[in-house]
Amino acid sequence: MQKEGLKIVISGPSGAGKGTIVKELIKNETFRLSISATTRMPRQGEEEGVHYFFKTKKAFSKMIEEEQLLEYAMFCDNYYGTPKCFIEESVKNGKDVILEIEVQGAAQIKEVYPEAIFIFVIPPTLRDLENRLIGRNTETDEVIKKRLQRAKEELYLYKEYDYVIINDNIERAADYIEKIVCAEKLRSNKFKQHIEAILNYQGGF
Ligand code: ADP
Ligand code: 5GP
What we know:
The protein is α/β, with parallel strands linked by helices. Helix content is about 40%, strand content about 20%. It has a five-stranded parallel beta sheet, with helices on both faces. Strands 4-3-6-5 form a four-stranded mixed beta sheet. The longest helix has 16 residues, at about 170-185. The chain is globular, with a radius of gyration of 19 Å. The mean pLDDT is about 95.
């Protein structure tokens, strides 16, 4: 029987390196990334349906009205939300689904999927965060300032997460997440069926 995959929520301040780590993780075929909808404008190189489903405010509101979203939140003046359909189907197929979402959305996911794994990615220092946001060169100074302010608020929420990863090295951070997922799959509560199958053995003689 196919074992269900895990739901893995990854949050953390903008610029901490979530996207970069996720890109590393999904090189491994077992992971699937949930593609969010957003009202944010695409950055250079971002593709529709690959990085996000880019929506107008009106289209996003319609998705909310039609209950197409599992969770949604406003982050620095834009809406972001997780479409419902993809997650259930992927975990049923044994894939580990990654939701790279901010803290308000993560709290909503905890209500729907308390069994999900919650991982908080942080930068080594606030100066690193600032340098990364500036270095990424995707936002205006004004937006960077807003995101840094928001980062300080978000950092207080680390206790809501099961694990914290300091992203001082991309490969190591991704490796830690793979190890967390591996350990989570070995939890005793995941072995009921397996143990029962062993005990059902009647013997050959
Ligand atoms: P987030 O998705 O959390 O907003 P990104 O993945 O876009 O962050 O990373 C922000 C910037 O920091 C990118 O330019 C990325 O290349 C860089 N970065 C990510 N991880 C590290 C790291 N461990 N060391 C140095 N730079 C990093
Ligand atoms: P960015 O604009 O940098 O791509 O994303 C901004 C923030 O929105 C990040 O913290 C990212 O994790 C979060 N985000 C992306 N998709 C979703 C989503 O579907 N729901 C929620 N709540 N947050 C999201």
